[in-house]
Amino acid sequence: MRQQAEQLKVDLVKARDSGSILSNVNEQIFTARARGGGAGAIAQASTDAALTGLEDQAFLAGTARESRGFTRQIPLLKQQLDLKREFVELQTDENAKVEDLEALKEKF
Fold it and tell me: Could you state, in order of their start, the residue ranges of all structural domains in the chain?
């Protein structure tokens, strides 16, 4: 993680457009939040990064129509990421039942 954080700093210096800058800053935030945490911390940081990335795409969209397209995806992405969090929680339980995993898979 430390090497990744250093590379992100270098990449930020080389960034040439607003999308690259925002993407890099988001990756730095993700790396900082995920560092030292377990699976739950990494999953939460990943969720936050995915939602922020979609919101940034909506903000940087060239047209209102394009922006609305990204904005409409946010609720669906939130649902999918909530299910991912549940999968992560089941994985950390050593006694996770196959039935529980299959039921969650059906929701997805």
Answer: 2-107
Q: pLDDT tens-digit profile of 21-45? A: 888 888 888 888 888 777 778 888 8
Q: Would the CA dihedral through 59, 71, 22, 45 be positive or negative?
A: positive
- pLDDT (tens digit, 9 = 90+) per residue, 72-82? 999 999 998 88
Residue pair 85/72 in contact by the 8 Å Cβ criterion: no
- Whether the per-residue pLDDT at 89 is higher than 80: the answer is no
Q: What is the DSSP string of 45-105?
A: HHHHHHHHHHHHHHHH-SSHHHHHHHHHHHHHHHHHHHHHHHHHHHHHSTT--HHHHHHHH
CA atoms within 13 A on the CB side of 19: 6
Please indicate, yes or no, whether the overall pTM of this predicted structure exceeds 0.90.
no
* Per-residue buried b or exposed e for 26-51, using 16+ beta carbons within 10 Å of the residue's own CB: bbbebbebbeeeeeeeebbbbbbbbe
